[in-house]
Design brief:
Elements (H helix, E strand, L loop, with lengths): L1 E8 L9 E8 L4 E6 L5 H8 L7 E6 L2 E2 L5 H9 L1 E5 L10 H11 L4 H14 L15 H13 L5 E5 L7 H18 L2 E6 L2 H7 L2 E6 L2 E7 H6 L4 H6 L3 H10 L12
Bound molecules: adenosine-5'-triphosphate.
């Protein structure tokens, strides 16, 4: 479980806090989407969760331990429990696919033959069994992100952090990467935290969602609760706007058609 407790982040030279007293609990097994516009503080928040950024205030308690207070050795161990994937994939261009996926295993001191077996298993999991010797420049965006996902899972993390993982991809590739994450979530049962500016991403795979605005957490909770709460902005945003859809049908001369039928 991840407990974010009054987390604050202010960058040197920028008087406006990027994060303001954020408190949020992410239960084990959740797929938690954190939604916000550009500049809302999404990257700052997710980067604080594995201390790629140091919070200015507050605590991040993962599995009962405040990670902001860990010594260097314990922090290294903690980081192995947390995989991360990035919008721009962050692959090593001079290394082939298998060598990229092997990086966390090398860092963890896993031996050569065990590494090779684990890498083959991971590439099969992400559907790239035939690309192990290809270089990143020879892959599509979706394939690069699959390599990123395999690398993030290499050390068998309990948490997967996704930093705008599909924002650089077209809609079809986005759907296939989200389906892969959904499949990994059901197969491995890990906890996924993803930040996004796309409502569709939340709709596609999240069990929980939070709304971040100007560094503040506006609301958060289970999708089922947000959808049932008439005051929830997230809940409203997640449902289709029937007036917009009716106007669309009118514009194309199709009126009076049922938008959906409930059995
Ligand atoms: N290294 C930095 N130094 C100073 N200010 C920063 C730094 N990084 C981010 N900020 C500021 O913190 C605020 C939140 O930025 P952040 O990148 O976390 O938002 P975001 O929601 O991820 O935006 P985007 O979707 O555009 O990446 C912004 O006002 C931004 O200008």
């Amino acid at each position: 479980m991840i407990q974010i407790d009054r987390l604050g982040k202010t960058y040197p030279g920028n008087p406006h806090p990027a994060l303001h007293e954020i408190s949020l609990t992410i239960e084990d097994g959740a797929v938690y989407g954190i939604l916000g516009r550009s500049g809302a503080g999404k990257s700052s928040l997710i980067r604080c969760l594995n201390l790629l950024e140091r919070p200015t205030s507050g605590r991040i308690i993962i599995d009962g331990r405040d990670i902001t207070a860990l010594n260097a050795q314990d922090l290294r161990r903690q980081r192995q429990r947390t995989g991360m994937i990035f919008q721009q994939f962050n692959l090593l261009h001079a290394r082939n696919v298998a060598e990229n996926v092997a990086v966390p295993l090398e860092i963890a001191g896993v031996g050569r033959s065990e590494r090779a077996g684990r890498v083959a298993e991971l590439l099969d999991l992400v559907g790239l069994g035939d690309k192990s010797r290809a270089f990143p420049s020879q892959l599509s965006g979706g394939q690069k992100q699959r390599v990123g996902i395999a690398r993030a899972l290499a050390a068998r993390p309990a948490y997967l952090l996704c930093d705008e993982a599909t924002s650089a991809l077209d809609p079809e590739t986005t759907a296939s990467v989200l389906a892969l994450l959904d499949n990994i979530h059901s197969q491995l049962g890990l906890t996924i935290v993803l930040i996004t500016h796309e409502l569709e991403v939340v709709k596609a795979i999240c069990s929980h969602a939070a709304l971040l605005e100007n560094g503040r957490l506006m609301e958060s909770g289970k999708l089922s609760s947000l959808l049932l709460d008439p005051a929830s902005r997230l809940g409203q945003a997640l449902l289709p706007d029937q007036e917009v859809e009716r106007a669309f049908l009118r514009r194309h001369g199709i009126e009076g058609r049922l938008l959906c039928e409930v059995a």
